[in-house]
Amino acid sequence: MQYEIKIMGYDNSTENVLYRIRIIDLFTLDQRDIRVRYSFLLDLHNAMQEYNINYQLPQFPKKEYLKTLFEENKVIKQRKQKIGEYFQQLCQSPPPNHKLLLDFLREGVDTIRQQELLKEVNSKTNLLKYLKYEKVLKKAQFGKTSLCSANGKKIILHKFYVMQRQSDILFQSYIKAHLNILDFNLFTQVNSIFYIRPKANFVDNMLGQVKQPKISKKQNIFANLQPQYISGEAVKIYSIEEYAGQNLDELIRERKNKNIPFNLDELLNIIQKILQAIIQLHKRNIFPNRILPTSIIINNDNVKLASIQEPNAKYKEKYLLEGYAKKNEQEFDIVYYPPEKISSQFQQQQLNGRLIDSWHFGVCILKAALLCTTKELDGIHICYQVDKFVNQVSDVIAEIIMLSLKQQAHQRADVRELYFLANQTAIIKFQSTVLNQQEKSQITYLTINNITEEQLKYIQQIIQKSPFLSVKINLYQQQIDQQELDKLLQLLGNFAEVKYITMILNKTQNLHFGKFCIGLQKLRQLKHLSLDLKGINIEKEEIDQALKIFNQMDSIERFILDCSSMEFINTLKSELQLDSKIILYFESQLI
C-alpha cells in the first residue's frame, strides 16, 4: 500500500479525545494532518471487519474507563501507541477488501475543521447579531459578496444562488473541497458554510426531520440556463471567508492608474505562491478551478488563493460561455477560459481540468505583467496574438506564460512543470543579479529553445564575442536529434566557459541519456547545474554511468535535479560525492 500513517499525538482539551494522525502518500510524498475521535477509528475498524468476514484484522486497541486524570492520560498515551501499531500492521497487510481504508487515507477529514465549517444558522437576524455589514463588494446574477466585520476583524460574506434541485450536491461539494484545504498560508480560510434554515420544532425533532432552506424570492435567476419546463427555483448558500487583503484585479487597476508596474521580484513571488496553491489543490483532486485575478489575494509579500470551488461557479461559466454575458462587464471574461472550453470541436472530448487551471493561471499572470484589462486581452485564443502579448513581457517570465497559454491542451505545461520552471527562473534571476555585480563585463546570458545548424552557427558567433556564458536550454516536449545535442555540448565545452546551465528536457523524445551525460562532462568550468528530466526513462546502466560522471565534475557548487525515476534519486542521495549543494525533486516534489 502506498500510504503510511503516523500518530503524532492527541488533544484532550475538548470533550472527546482527538488523535492527531499524519497520512503520508509514499508515492507523491504528500502528507496531511487530521484529528479524529477514537470512536470514529473504532467504527472504521468494525466496518472493515464486516466487509472482510473471512479475514481477521489486527486487534483494535480497547477503550478503558478510569477515574483519575493521571490514569486517564497514561492510558491515552498507551492507546495512541497501540493505534499507531494497529495502522502500521494494517498498511503493511491490508485486508482483501480495503476500499474503506483507502477512502479514509485519501479523503479522511479533520474533525475540528468539520465542526467549524458546519455551523447551523436559523435566521438572518441571528447571523446579523455576529456580523456588521460595511459595504457590498460585488453584486451579480448568481450571488453577492459583502465586506463585514466581526469582533473587530474584517470578513467576507458570500451569498450564492443555486438551483434548488442541485443545492445539496453543490453544498456537499463545496464543503468537501474546504475540508481538504488546511494550509492557510496559501489559501484564505473559509470559516463557515451554511444554509439559513428555519429552526426545527418539536415535531421535526421527534421525527428526525430537517427543515429545508427557504426558496429565494428573487425570480428568473436561471431563466437562460435551462429548458422552460424545468423548475429553476433558487436557494441561497452562504459562506464566511477571512479578509486577507486586496485582490490582484484591484491592484492591477490601481497600478495602471498610477503607472507603477509590478517589478520582477513581485511577479515571481505571485507566480510561485499561486502555483504552490494550485499544486496543493490538484493533490487533493480539486480541479478545475475558476482562477481569476479577483481570487488572488495579496497583502505585501503574502499571496493567497480564494474563492475555491464556489457552488455557483458552473452557472457563471455557462452564462458566459453561452453568450448571455454580452454587453455587460463580464463579457470579456471569456479570455480566462482555454480554447477547449469554448470551441464546439472539443465538446465531445474529455477535458483535462489540470491543464484548464494552467490556462487560468497564465492569463492572470499575463494581465498582471501587462497591467491590462480583460478587453485588451481579446484575441488571446489565437496563437500569433499570444506571441504578440508575451513579447511585451520580461524574458524571465515570458517562457512560463507561453507554456501555460498553449492553444492545444496536450502542448500546455501543467502546474507542476510551471512551478519547477518558476523556481529555476528565480535562481537564474538571483544569479544574474549577483553576477552583474561581480562579472558584469564577462558573462553573457544565452537562451536556446531549439538546436539547428543555424542556431549552432549563431552560438559560435556569441562565443567569439564573450566566451563566459550562463546558458538556459529549453527543449520541452521536443524531438531531439542526439547528434545536434552532442555538437552543442561539444561547442560549449571546447570554445566557451559555461558557468551556469539549466536544461529543460521534460518529455523530450529520443534522448540518449548516457551520451548526454558524456556531453555534460565537457563543461569543465561549470558551477551550477540544473536538469529537468521528468518523463525521461533512465535505465540502470545509465544511472551508474551518470553517477560516475557527476562524481568527476569537481567544479560544481550547486546541483538541482528533477526527474521521474526514484531509483535515480535514491542512487544520487546515497552515492553522489560532489562537495556541493544538491537539491533533488521527484516529479517537482522536493525530496
From TrEMBL:
Segments forming domain PX: 1-128
Domain Protein kinase, residue spans: 131-427
One Gene Ontology MF term: ATP binding
Name the record gives this protein: Protein kinase domain-containing protein
Organism: Paramecium pentaurelia
